[in-house]
Amino acid sequence: VLISKKGIMIDSETSKRVLFGEDEDELLAGLPNKNADIFGPIDSIRNLKLDVLFPSVHGNLGEDGTLAGLFRLMNIPYVGSGLRAHAISFDKVITKELMTVNGIRNTKYIVIFQNDKNKPDWDSVSKQLGEVVFVKAANQGSSVGVSRVTNAEEYENALRDSFQY
Fold it and tell me: Where, by residue number, does the polypeptide cross the bilayer (predicted)?
């Protein structure tokens, strides 16, 4: 299940279409309007006699620490990092800054915020980072909002795409 940017739960088939670039608004308009009991599944987890939970998730609400926090609040033992580790590592900027401060080698990077008035142009970026760069939304799963960039047009499109997340 994917939670859309508008907070709507989308089934796995539709979510794949969103992740592969189809227009989210058009896809959502075509879906039947169904109400769901979002607390039912949580209550049913409480009633299970679990030794330990093995979450297998990808993206927001899974990798960002939300599930770890929920499991902790529910006193459910689970495998994986804790809430803080999830939240910190999900934010690529904080992760890179922590690595740099602690002397851990990592790739060169530039942070560009959507509201920056003086965003670096492609020539400046390619001089600092090389002829091939990857533009990535800072707070998304590993494969969401990633673009391989080799020229100014791709760079502008990649920024526009990553700022959607």
Answer: none
Out of 3.90.1300.10, 3.30.420.40, 1.10.3720.10, 3.40.50.20, select the CATH number for domain 40-90. 3.40.50.20
Pull the structure tokens for residue 53: 């939970």
The Cα-based distances of 131 to 27, 112, 161 in angstroms read 36, 18, 20
Rounded to two decimals, the pTM is 0.63
Residue (of 10, 7, 73) closest to 42 by Cα position = 73
User: Do 144 and 165 touch, CB atoms closer than 8 A?
Assistant: yes
- In tens, the pLDDT along 51-108 reads 888 888 777 777 888 888 888 888 889 999 988 998 898 899 999 999 999 999 999 9
CATH number attached to the domain at 91-165: 3.30.1490
